[in-house]
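testing teh design pipeline on a random one, pls ignore if ur not involved
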């Protein structure tokens, strides 16, 4: 794959599936954004959003902030990382804005970086978010994700910035910054990237080298080990009748040389293993509930803390969909597809309800972020998930693990299951449901 093809694939994926990607920091004007971005260094956006409302209320502009003392500001931001330095930077930045820039946040990178507390990354965020410039801010997520995918081969954030800017079309640079950040924050995690649910595997170098090839060589290794074990057992079995050596010796003695040198038997074993694999092909768990069954009653809190019960929907049809995890790419596509057709479902006397094991807080964040107009039930004790039999073993990229099996139940107004969808097409799930007869 060429670097160009990799960029095209990744950008097209994000363009289609994450058309809106914005900073998660809360701000209303350039002054608030630059303050929030300075505070966000080495800290989470969630934490910053907790401290800025009061700070902005009491210091609504650069003039007010410039007149404050760092000690006073420290009290507002004591819960963020490095509050001492950041308090000094904020007051210094506000003073420079007043004295050198007429109180206006500049738009040029070389001017922005003159402000105390403003490095190249912060300057790029301000230039791209406020002034819509094709500036690429490289933080730890952007740096890591770009290198892993193979969009960059960079040793420093500046190299990463230059390489990304070179390949990403100007009109997508600012958004690409958020795409990569969000992907790093929720999927391509620093310690353990969630490759098993990642939609970018097709283009990702890390995936090919560290997951795909590793899986291949692991299964080859497992096959070899199995063959070796088989050989030991076969040899022991055949020598049992003639040998008079004690069993313990026989078990500890077999030499690696003997096993690995017998290539003829290896080949046969491989063939045998292949045949066995074919006949024992993995089958993922599927719900035992079927069309015509009475739908199990359900009750749980939704993202607003409201108790939602199946009894509330007498006389209504229900789209009850089970999904693995909030905010992951597949689940987001599925939710957005149902969101976009929500009016249609309402007109057809349907209620849409999502269920996962995430808690109310996670649901709220997910629903708010993607403006989901329906309830997401927080089935944290997994009662509904188990009642609907959608928890079980599944396989992804050779990995077998237990989890929620993505399944949708269409329930009629008499609480009878009319359809069970086990092959969910996340991106066009609403259309999939609409196409049912
Ligand atoms: S496949 Fe894995 S390493 Fe590659 S981008 Fe996705 S999560 Fe990250």
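output:
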């Amino acid at each position: 794959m060429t670097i160009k093809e990799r960029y095209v694939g990744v950008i097209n994926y994000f363009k289609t599936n994450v058309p809106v990607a914005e900073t998660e920091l809360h701000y209303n004007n350039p002054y608030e954004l630059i303050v929030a971005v300075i505070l966000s260094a080495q800290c989470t956006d969630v934490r910053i959003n907790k401290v800025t409302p009061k700070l902005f209320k009491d210091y609504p502009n650069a003039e007010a902030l410039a007149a404050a003392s760092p000690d006073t500001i420290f009290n507002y931001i004591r819960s963020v990382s490095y509050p001492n330095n950041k308090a000094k930077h904020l007051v210094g930045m506000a003073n420079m804005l007043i004295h050198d820039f007429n109180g206006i946040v500049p738009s040029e990178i070389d001017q922005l970086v003159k402000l105390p507390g403003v490095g190249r990354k912060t300057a790029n965020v301000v230039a791209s978010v406020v002034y819509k410039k094709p500036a690429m801010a490289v933080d730890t997520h952007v740096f890591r994700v770009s290198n892993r995918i193979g969009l960059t081969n960079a040793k420093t954030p500046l190299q990463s910035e230059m390489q990304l800017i070179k390949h990403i079309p100007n009109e997508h640079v600012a958004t690409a910054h958020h795409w990569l950040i969000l992907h790093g924050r929720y999927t391509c995690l620093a310690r353990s990237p969630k490759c098993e649910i990642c939609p970018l595997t097709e283009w990702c170098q890390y995936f090919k080298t560290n997951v795909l090839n590793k899986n291949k060589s692991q299964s080859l290794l497992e096959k070899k080990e199995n063959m070796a074990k088989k050989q030991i057992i076969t040899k022991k079995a055949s020598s049992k009748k003639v040998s008079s050596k004690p069993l313990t010796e026989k078990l500890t003695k077999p030499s690696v040389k003997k096993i690995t040198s017998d290539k003829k038997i290896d080949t046969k074993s491989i063939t045998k293993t292949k045949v066995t694999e074919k006949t024992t092909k993995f089958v993922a768990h599927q719900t035992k509930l079927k069309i015509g069954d009475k739908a199990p009653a359900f009750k749980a809190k939704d993202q607003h803390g409201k108790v939602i019960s199946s009894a509330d929907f007498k006389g209504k049809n229900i789209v009850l969909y089970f999904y693995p995890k909030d905010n992951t790419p597949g689940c987001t596509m599925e939710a957005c597809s149902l969101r976009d057709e929500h009016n249609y479902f309402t007109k057809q006397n349907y209620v849409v309800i999502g269920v996962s094991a995430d808690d109310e807080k996670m649901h709220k964040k997910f629903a708010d972020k993607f403006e989901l107009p329906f309830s997401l039930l927080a089935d944290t004790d997994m009662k509904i998930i188990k009642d609907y039999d959608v928890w079980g073993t599944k396989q992804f990229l050779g990995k077998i693990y237990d989890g929620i099996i993505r399944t949708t139940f269409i329930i009629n107004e008499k609480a009878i299951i009319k359809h069970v969808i086990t092959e969910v097409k996340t991106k066009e799930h609403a259309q999939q449901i609409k196409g049912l007869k």
